[in-house]
Amino acid sequence: MPLTDPVKLQIVQQRVFIKKVCRNCGALNSIKATKCRRCHSTNLRPKKKELPTKKA
Ligand SMILES: [Zn+2]
């Protein structure tokens, strides 16, 4: 179900895409996390992927 409401899109982006991804095991972590919650690796990258904006 594609979201078209820009307000909802923003909420989803903030809640889902503002994460860090572990390069070691791929687990999602909080943006504030410094260590992976699964493998305790510090090799985290921010997940910057954004939702496709079809309305642009
Ligand atoms: Zn990990």
TrEMBL record:
Protein name as it appears in the record: Large ribosomal subunit protein eL40
Gene Ontology BP term (one): translation
Family, similarity comment: Belongs to the eukaryotic ribosomal protein eL40 family.
Organism: Acidianus brierleyi
GO molecular function: structural constituent of ribosome
A cellular component term, taken from the record's GO annotations: ribonucleoprotein complex
Alphabetic keyword roster: Ribonucleoprotein, Ribosomal protein
Keyword Ribosomal protein assigned: yes
